[in-house]
Write the C-alpha coordinates for this entry.
Amino acid sequence: MAIAKLSALFLSSLIACASPAQNFSSGSDGSYGPLNITSNTTLTLPSNGTFNCTTITIASGATLTFNRNPLNTPVYLLATSNVLLNGYIDVSGKQGSGSSRGEGGPGGFDGGNPGLGPSVPPGAGYGPGGGKGGPDDNTDNSAGAGAYGSVPAAGNSTNKGASYGSPLLVPLTGGSGGGGTIGSPGRGGSGGGGAILIASSSRIDLSPDANVSANGGHDGYISGSGGAIRLIAPIIAGPGTLSAITGDDYGGTGRIRIDTLDRNSLRLASTPYANVGSFMTVFPSPLPRLDIIDAAGTPIPEGTNMPVTVLLPFGSTTNRTVTVQARNFNIQVPINVVLNPESGDPVVYPATIDNRTSNPAQTIVNVVIPLNVLVNISAWTR
Protein backbone atom coordinates (compact mmCIF):
# COMPACT_ATOMS: atom_id res chain seq x y z
CA MET A 1 0.00 0.00 0.00
CA ALA A 2 1.56 3.28 -1.15
CA ILE A 3 0.30 6.42 0.52
CA ALA A 4 1.33 10.02 0.07
CA LYS A 5 -0.19 13.43 0.75
CA LEU A 6 -2.62 15.64 -1.17
CA SER A 7 -2.59 19.40 -0.91
CA ALA A 8 -6.35 19.89 -0.68
CA LEU A 9 -8.45 22.70 -2.09
CA PHE A 10 -10.17 25.02 0.35
CA LEU A 11 -12.39 28.06 -0.10
CA SER A 12 -11.84 30.76 2.48
CA SER A 13 -14.80 32.93 3.39
CA LEU A 14 -12.74 35.53 5.25
CA ILE A 15 -10.30 37.71 3.26
CA ALA A 16 -7.80 40.16 4.73
CA CYS A 17 -7.76 43.81 3.68
CA ALA A 18 -5.62 44.81 0.69
CA SER A 19 -2.31 46.59 1.28
CA PRO A 20 -1.95 50.21 0.17
CA ALA A 21 -0.07 50.81 -3.12
CA GLN A 22 3.11 52.17 -1.56
CA ASN A 23 3.44 49.03 0.58
CA PHE A 24 2.61 46.42 -2.04
CA SER A 25 5.21 43.72 -2.60
CA SER A 26 4.94 40.83 -5.01
CA GLY A 27 6.75 38.68 -2.45
CA SER A 28 9.76 38.15 -4.70
CA ASP A 29 13.19 38.22 -3.06
CA GLY A 30 14.86 38.67 -6.47
CA SER A 31 17.03 35.55 -6.08
CA TYR A 32 16.25 34.25 -9.59
CA GLY A 33 17.35 37.52 -11.20
CA PRO A 34 15.84 38.72 -14.48
CA LEU A 35 13.70 36.26 -16.44
CA ASN A 36 14.19 37.10 -20.12
CA ILE A 37 12.49 34.79 -22.63
CA THR A 38 13.61 35.50 -26.22
CA SER A 39 12.68 32.17 -27.88
CA ASN A 40 10.41 29.21 -27.14
CA THR A 41 11.41 28.00 -23.68
CA THR A 42 10.22 25.32 -21.26
CA LEU A 43 11.21 25.77 -17.62
CA THR A 44 10.97 23.07 -14.96
CA LEU A 45 9.05 24.35 -11.96
CA PRO A 46 10.91 24.49 -8.65
CA SER A 47 9.43 22.49 -5.80
CA ASN A 48 7.17 25.35 -4.67
CA GLY A 49 6.38 26.56 -8.19
CA THR A 50 7.83 30.03 -7.49
CA PHE A 51 10.25 32.09 -9.58
CA ASN A 52 11.59 35.00 -7.50
CA CYS A 53 12.55 37.38 -10.29
CA THR A 54 13.72 40.98 -10.47
CA THR A 55 12.10 41.64 -13.86
CA ILE A 56 10.18 39.44 -16.31
CA THR A 57 10.24 39.96 -20.09
CA ILE A 58 8.67 37.70 -22.73
CA ALA A 59 9.75 38.73 -26.25
CA SER A 60 7.36 38.94 -29.18
CA GLY A 61 6.85 35.55 -30.83
CA ALA A 62 8.37 33.62 -27.88
CA THR A 63 6.36 31.09 -25.84
CA LEU A 64 7.11 30.17 -22.22
CA THR A 65 5.84 26.80 -20.96
CA PHE A 66 6.58 24.72 -17.87
CA ASN A 67 7.26 21.14 -16.81
CA ARG A 68 5.16 20.22 -13.77
CA ASN A 69 6.95 19.60 -10.48
CA PRO A 70 6.29 16.47 -8.35
CA LEU A 71 3.68 18.30 -6.25
CA ASN A 72 2.00 19.74 -9.36
CA THR A 73 1.86 23.22 -7.86
CA PRO A 74 0.62 26.28 -9.73
CA VAL A 75 3.11 28.63 -11.41
CA TYR A 76 4.05 31.76 -9.46
CA LEU A 77 5.98 34.38 -11.47
CA LEU A 78 6.94 37.12 -9.01
CA ALA A 79 8.96 40.24 -9.84
CA THR A 80 10.41 43.03 -7.69
CA SER A 81 10.14 45.39 -10.67
CA ASN A 82 8.41 45.52 -14.06
CA VAL A 83 6.81 42.67 -16.03
CA LEU A 84 6.62 43.13 -19.81
CA LEU A 85 4.73 40.54 -21.85
CA ASN A 86 5.02 40.74 -25.64
CA GLY A 87 4.83 36.98 -26.29
CA TYR A 88 3.04 33.94 -24.87
CA ILE A 89 2.79 32.10 -21.57
CA ASP A 90 0.98 28.75 -21.80
CA VAL A 91 -0.10 26.48 -18.91
CA SER A 92 -2.85 24.67 -20.82
CA GLY A 93 -3.93 21.05 -20.31
CA LYS A 94 -3.32 18.30 -22.85
CA GLN A 95 -5.62 16.02 -24.83
CA GLY A 96 -5.96 12.36 -23.82
CA SER A 97 -5.34 9.39 -26.11
CA GLY A 98 -6.24 5.73 -26.51
CA SER A 99 -3.42 4.74 -24.19
CA SER A 100 -3.39 7.40 -21.49
CA ARG A 101 -5.26 10.24 -19.82
CA GLY A 102 -4.49 13.84 -20.74
CA GLU A 103 -2.19 15.70 -18.40
CA GLY A 104 -3.42 18.81 -16.66
CA GLY A 105 -1.40 22.00 -16.90
CA PRO A 106 0.76 22.95 -13.89
CA GLY A 107 -1.62 23.17 -10.95
CA GLY A 108 -4.43 21.58 -13.00
CA PHE A 109 -5.84 18.06 -12.89
CA ASP A 110 -5.49 15.09 -15.24
CA GLY A 111 -8.27 13.52 -17.27
CA GLY A 112 -9.65 10.04 -16.54
CA ASN A 113 -8.06 6.85 -17.84
CA PRO A 114 -9.43 5.18 -20.99
CA GLY A 115 -11.43 2.00 -20.64
CA LEU A 116 -9.70 -1.27 -21.56
CA GLY A 117 -12.44 -3.66 -22.64
CA PRO A 118 -15.49 -4.89 -20.71
CA SER A 119 -13.60 -5.72 -17.51
CA VAL A 120 -11.79 -2.38 -17.09
CA PRO A 121 -14.15 0.64 -17.05
CA PRO A 122 -12.86 4.13 -17.79
CA GLY A 123 -11.82 6.45 -14.98
CA ALA A 124 -13.27 9.80 -13.98
CA GLY A 125 -11.39 13.04 -14.49
CA TYR A 126 -9.39 14.27 -11.50
CA GLY A 127 -10.06 17.45 -9.55
CA PRO A 128 -13.15 18.75 -7.74
CA GLY A 129 -14.91 19.35 -11.08
CA GLY A 130 -13.83 16.16 -12.85
CA GLY A 131 -16.21 14.58 -15.35
CA LYS A 132 -17.18 10.91 -14.96
CA GLY A 133 -16.29 8.19 -17.44
CA GLY A 134 -18.78 6.52 -19.75
CA PRO A 135 -19.66 5.72 -23.38
CA ASP A 136 -18.43 7.95 -26.19
CA ASP A 137 -21.86 8.72 -27.64
CA ASN A 138 -23.11 12.07 -26.22
CA THR A 139 -26.12 10.53 -24.50
CA ASP A 140 -27.32 11.13 -20.94
CA ASN A 141 -24.91 8.57 -19.47
CA SER A 142 -21.94 9.28 -21.75
CA ALA A 143 -18.53 10.41 -20.50
CA GLY A 144 -18.54 13.99 -19.23
CA ALA A 145 -16.21 16.98 -19.51
CA GLY A 146 -14.52 18.79 -16.64
CA ALA A 147 -15.95 21.90 -14.96
CA TYR A 148 -14.50 24.81 -12.99
CA GLY A 149 -15.93 28.34 -13.11
CA SER A 150 -18.88 26.96 -15.08
CA VAL A 151 -20.38 23.62 -16.07
CA PRO A 152 -19.66 22.66 -19.70
CA ALA A 153 -22.32 24.07 -22.02
CA ALA A 154 -22.01 21.55 -24.85
CA GLY A 155 -23.21 17.95 -24.77
CA ASN A 156 -26.10 16.00 -23.27
CA SER A 157 -24.21 14.03 -20.63
CA THR A 158 -25.28 14.08 -16.99
CA ASN A 159 -21.71 13.06 -16.09
CA LYS A 160 -20.24 16.55 -16.51
CA GLY A 161 -18.33 17.93 -13.54
CA ALA A 162 -19.68 20.51 -11.07
CA SER A 163 -18.42 24.09 -10.70
CA TYR A 164 -16.16 25.03 -7.78
CA GLY A 165 -13.66 27.59 -6.59
CA SER A 166 -13.54 31.24 -5.56
CA PRO A 167 -13.67 34.31 -7.86
CA LEU A 168 -10.75 35.69 -5.82
CA LEU A 169 -8.63 32.68 -6.86
CA VAL A 170 -7.69 32.20 -3.22
CA PRO A 171 -6.53 29.52 -3.12
CA LEU A 172 -5.08 29.33 -6.62
CA THR A 173 -6.06 26.07 -8.25
CA GLY A 174 -6.39 24.82 -11.82
CA GLY A 175 -9.04 23.17 -13.95
CA SER A 176 -10.41 19.62 -13.74
CA GLY A 177 -10.14 16.74 -16.20
CA GLY A 178 -12.71 15.10 -18.43
CA GLY A 179 -13.81 11.48 -17.98
CA GLY A 180 -12.42 8.61 -20.04
CA THR A 181 -14.53 6.61 -22.46
CA ILE A 182 -15.49 2.94 -22.75
CA GLY A 183 -13.60 0.96 -25.40
CA SER A 184 -10.85 -1.53 -26.19
CA PRO A 185 -9.21 0.85 -25.59
CA GLY A 186 -11.38 3.92 -25.16
CA ARG A 187 -10.04 7.44 -25.01
CA GLY A 188 -8.49 9.13 -22.02
CA GLY A 189 -10.15 12.31 -20.82
CA SER A 190 -8.33 15.57 -21.45
CA GLY A 191 -6.55 17.50 -18.71
CA GLY A 192 -7.70 20.71 -17.08
CA GLY A 193 -5.95 24.01 -17.66
CA GLY A 194 -3.20 24.90 -15.23
CA ALA A 195 -2.99 27.77 -12.74
CA ILE A 196 -0.65 30.76 -12.94
CA LEU A 197 -0.14 33.89 -10.85
CA ILE A 198 1.93 36.81 -12.15
CA ALA A 199 2.74 39.56 -9.65
CA SER A 200 4.87 42.71 -9.84
CA SER A 201 5.71 45.22 -7.14
CA SER A 202 5.47 47.98 -9.77
CA ARG A 203 3.57 47.18 -13.00
CA ILE A 204 2.56 44.54 -15.55
CA ASP A 205 2.32 45.54 -19.23
CA LEU A 206 0.77 43.30 -21.89
CA SER A 207 1.25 44.31 -25.53
CA PRO A 208 -1.38 43.59 -28.23
CA ASP A 209 0.48 40.35 -29.07
CA ALA A 210 0.74 39.13 -25.46
CA ASN A 211 -1.24 36.03 -24.54
CA VAL A 212 -1.51 34.11 -21.25
CA SER A 213 -3.36 30.81 -21.73
CA ALA A 214 -4.65 28.28 -19.20
CA ASN A 215 -7.00 26.42 -21.52
CA GLY A 216 -8.39 22.94 -20.98
CA GLY A 217 -7.34 20.06 -23.21
CA HIS A 218 -9.80 19.96 -26.11
CA ASP A 219 -11.35 16.63 -27.10
CA GLY A 220 -15.06 17.10 -27.62
CA TYR A 221 -17.33 15.93 -24.83
CA ILE A 222 -14.43 14.64 -22.67
CA SER A 223 -12.50 17.92 -22.64
CA GLY A 224 -10.86 19.35 -19.54
CA SER A 225 -12.01 22.65 -18.10
CA GLY A 226 -10.20 25.95 -18.34
CA GLY A 227 -7.75 26.75 -15.58
CA ALA A 228 -6.84 29.88 -13.58
CA ILE A 229 -4.98 33.13 -14.28
CA ARG A 230 -4.35 35.82 -11.69
CA LEU A 231 -2.46 39.11 -12.25
CA ILE A 232 -1.49 41.40 -9.34
CA ALA A 233 0.32 44.76 -9.57
CA PRO A 234 -0.30 48.40 -8.64
CA ILE A 235 -0.56 49.14 -12.39
CA ILE A 236 -1.72 46.64 -15.03
CA ALA A 237 -1.81 48.04 -18.55
CA GLY A 238 -2.21 47.06 -22.17
CA PRO A 239 -4.53 45.22 -24.57
CA GLY A 240 -3.15 41.67 -24.30
CA THR A 241 -5.22 38.49 -24.13
CA LEU A 242 -6.02 36.15 -21.22
CA SER A 243 -7.69 32.80 -21.93
CA ALA A 244 -8.96 30.04 -19.61
CA ILE A 245 -11.52 28.15 -21.70
CA THR A 246 -11.97 25.00 -23.76
CA GLY A 247 -12.82 25.25 -27.44
CA ASP A 248 -16.47 25.23 -28.53
CA ASP A 249 -17.78 25.23 -24.92
CA TYR A 250 -16.99 21.51 -24.49
CA GLY A 251 -15.26 22.01 -21.15
CA GLY A 252 -16.24 24.40 -18.39
CA THR A 253 -14.68 27.84 -18.29
CA GLY A 254 -11.85 28.58 -15.91
CA ARG A 255 -11.40 31.64 -13.70
CA ILE A 256 -9.46 34.87 -14.31
CA ARG A 257 -8.74 37.47 -11.64
CA ILE A 258 -7.03 40.87 -11.99
CA ASP A 259 -6.05 42.83 -8.88
CA THR A 260 -4.72 46.36 -9.40
CA LEU A 261 -4.97 49.88 -8.01
CA ASP A 262 -4.76 51.71 -11.35
CA ARG A 263 -7.09 50.57 -14.13
CA ASN A 264 -6.69 53.61 -16.38
CA SER A 265 -4.70 51.71 -19.03
CA LEU A 266 -6.24 48.27 -18.52
CA ARG A 267 -7.52 47.06 -21.91
CA LEU A 268 -7.17 43.29 -21.64
CA ALA A 269 -9.29 40.88 -23.67
CA SER A 270 -10.30 38.12 -21.26
CA THR A 271 -12.18 34.86 -21.88
CA PRO A 272 -14.04 34.22 -19.64
CA TYR A 273 -14.57 37.75 -18.38
CA ALA A 274 -12.10 38.60 -15.67
CA ASN A 275 -13.12 39.32 -12.10
CA VAL A 276 -11.42 42.68 -11.37
CA GLY A 277 -10.65 44.06 -7.93
CA SER A 278 -7.94 45.42 -5.65
CA PHE A 279 -7.16 42.52 -3.33
CA MET A 280 -3.44 43.31 -3.21
CA THR A 281 -2.29 40.18 -1.42
CA VAL A 282 -0.32 37.42 -3.12
CA PHE A 283 -0.19 34.89 -0.30
CA PRO A 284 -2.82 35.55 2.41
CA SER A 285 -1.75 34.67 5.93
CA PRO A 286 -2.77 32.72 7.85
CA LEU A 287 -3.91 30.54 4.98
CA PRO A 288 -6.72 28.11 5.78
CA ARG A 289 -5.85 24.57 4.74
CA LEU A 290 -7.35 21.12 4.61
CA ASP A 291 -5.11 18.07 5.11
CA ILE A 292 -5.57 14.32 5.00
CA ILE A 293 -3.53 13.21 7.98
CA ASP A 294 -4.42 9.50 8.00
CA ALA A 295 -5.58 7.19 5.22
CA ALA A 296 -6.49 3.53 5.75
CA GLY A 297 -4.48 3.38 8.97
CA THR A 298 -1.31 5.07 7.71
CA PRO A 299 -0.51 8.44 9.34
CA ILE A 300 0.53 11.31 7.04
CA PRO A 301 2.42 14.31 8.46
CA GLU A 302 0.68 17.65 7.97
CA GLY A 303 2.23 19.60 5.11
CA THR A 304 3.51 16.56 3.21
CA ASN A 305 1.64 17.94 0.16
CA MET A 306 1.77 14.82 -1.99
CA PRO A 307 -1.14 12.95 -3.62
CA VAL A 308 -2.80 10.40 -1.38
CA THR A 309 -2.99 7.04 -3.14
CA VAL A 310 -4.02 3.67 -1.74
CA LEU A 311 -3.71 0.19 -3.26
CA LEU A 312 -5.37 -2.58 -1.24
CA PRO A 313 -4.44 -6.14 -2.32
CA PHE A 314 -7.01 -8.93 -2.55
CA GLY A 315 -7.94 -10.26 0.88
CA SER A 316 -7.68 -6.86 2.58
CA THR A 317 -10.44 -5.26 4.63
CA THR A 318 -12.25 -2.71 2.47
CA ASN A 319 -13.91 -0.80 5.33
CA ARG A 320 -11.37 1.90 6.20
CA THR A 321 -11.18 5.42 7.61
CA VAL A 322 -9.76 8.72 6.40
CA THR A 323 -8.91 11.47 8.90
CA VAL A 324 -9.15 15.04 7.61
CA GLN A 325 -7.85 18.10 9.43
CA ALA A 326 -8.93 21.74 9.00
CA ARG A 327 -6.73 24.64 10.11
CA ASN A 328 -7.40 28.41 10.23
CA PHE A 329 -10.94 28.35 8.80
CA ASN A 330 -12.53 29.37 12.14
CA ILE A 331 -15.93 28.17 10.91
CA GLN A 332 -17.80 24.91 10.57
CA VAL A 333 -16.30 23.48 7.36
CA PRO A 334 -18.40 21.24 5.08
CA ILE A 335 -16.14 18.88 3.13
CA ASN A 336 -16.24 16.02 0.65
CA VAL A 337 -13.84 13.11 0.87
CA VAL A 338 -13.56 11.73 -2.67
CA LEU A 339 -12.25 8.29 -3.62
CA ASN A 340 -11.30 8.35 -7.30
CA PRO A 341 -10.15 4.94 -8.60
CA GLU A 342 -8.08 4.69 -11.77
CA SER A 343 -10.94 2.63 -13.24
CA GLY A 344 -14.59 3.24 -12.39
CA ASP A 345 -16.63 6.04 -10.87
CA PRO A 346 -15.54 8.19 -7.92
CA VAL A 347 -17.36 7.86 -4.59
CA VAL A 348 -18.07 10.95 -2.48
CA TYR A 349 -18.36 10.93 1.33
CA PRO A 350 -19.73 14.22 2.76
CA ALA A 351 -18.61 15.30 6.22
CA THR A 352 -18.22 18.38 8.42
CA ILE A 353 -15.31 19.67 10.52
CA ASP A 354 -16.04 22.11 13.37
CA ASN A 355 -13.09 24.52 13.30
CA ARG A 356 -14.79 27.18 15.43
CA THR A 357 -13.42 26.33 18.87
CA SER A 358 -10.58 23.93 18.06
CA ASN A 359 -7.70 24.79 15.73
CA PRO A 360 -6.72 22.53 14.12
CA ALA A 361 -9.84 20.38 14.13
CA GLN A 362 -10.31 16.87 12.75
CA THR A 363 -12.96 14.44 11.63
CA ILE A 364 -12.82 10.71 10.85
CA VAL A 365 -14.69 9.60 7.74
CA ASN A 366 -15.68 5.97 7.18
CA VAL A 367 -15.01 4.89 3.58
CA VAL A 368 -15.03 1.71 1.48
CA ILE A 369 -11.89 1.28 -0.63
CA PRO A 370 -12.05 -1.15 -3.59
CA LEU A 371 -9.48 -3.94 -3.78
CA ASN A 372 -6.59 -4.17 -6.22
CA VAL A 373 -7.31 -0.77 -7.78
CA LEU A 374 -5.13 2.29 -7.27
CA VAL A 375 -7.33 4.88 -5.58
CA ASN A 376 -6.65 8.60 -5.27
CA ILE A 377 -8.12 10.11 -2.10
CA SER A 378 -8.92 13.82 -2.01
CA ALA A 379 -10.54 16.21 0.46
CA TRP A 380 -12.29 19.32 -0.79
CA THR A 381 -14.38 22.00 0.85
CA ARG A 382 -18.00 22.22 -0.32
Remarks:
- The first strand starts at residue 33 and ends at 37.
- Residues 247 and 255 are 15 Å apart (CA to CA).
- The chain is about 0% helix and 30% strand.
